[in-house]
Write a structure and sequence with these properties.
With 185 residues, this protein is α+β, with helices and mostly antiparallel strands. Helix content is 57%, strand content 15%.
Length: 185
């Protein structure tokens, strides 16, 4: 039972780290990347649909994304969704495709992006700590039901703490890398 709790805890922490990494993909660094738009959802006939399910997204040059919807009637909705996302990009629509130019980042914008990345990082850390708390509560309940000795409880809590420390350190490494990427000129 204890090993099941620990392995489930580790899986949840891995997923949290992966989710934090995916959030980082949405932070632009001055280079055009289709992964930047992975969080943009478009109102498509009353249904919130991810942009990548409505269009082909290409990067023909380093500072430009081109979005070519399969259904031309959704162009206005895509444009609106991009403007409402917090990407700070201005799309231009020619009736067939949407061009999304990436202006070079200035120092002020870089610092804003670093703040956003740090906020995402803190959310990831909090999620990992919440997973630790839930696992420890499960273990304490087992002890109360006399299915676990006090020594086993302490050992298990130590294992979960080591997992927590490792995954928080991994999130911190991801933060460092993303900050360097944002601040490079």
């Amino acid at each position: 039972m204890v090993s099941k709790i620990i392995s489930e805890t580790e899986q949840k922490m891995k997923k949290t780290v992966a989710a934090t990494g995916n959030e980082f993909l949405g932070i632009r660094t001055g280079r055009a990347s289709a992964s930047l738009l992975h969080r943009v959802v478009v109102d498509y006939y009353g249904t919130k649909t991810p942009l990548n399910q409505l269009a082909t997204i290409t990067a023909p040059e380093p500072q430009l994304l081109v979005i070519q919807p399969w259904d031309k009637t959704v162009l206005q909705n895509i444009e609106k969704a991009i403007l409402q996302s917090e990407l700070g990009l201005t799309p231009s629509n020619d009736g067939n495709v949407i061009r999304l130019p990436f202006p070079p980042l200035n120092e002020e914008r870089r610092k804003e992006l670093v703040k956003v990345v740090r906020k995402i990082t803190e959310e990831g850390r909090i999620a990992v700590r919440n997973i630790r708390r839930e696992a420890n509560e499960e273990l304490k309940n087992l002890e109360k039901q006399h299915e676990l000795s006090e020594d086993e409880l302490r050992r298990s809590e130590d294992q979960i703490q080591k997992l927590t420390d490792n995954y928080i350190a991994e999130i911190d490494r991801m933060l460092e890398n993303k900050e360097e990427e944002i601040m490079e000129v």
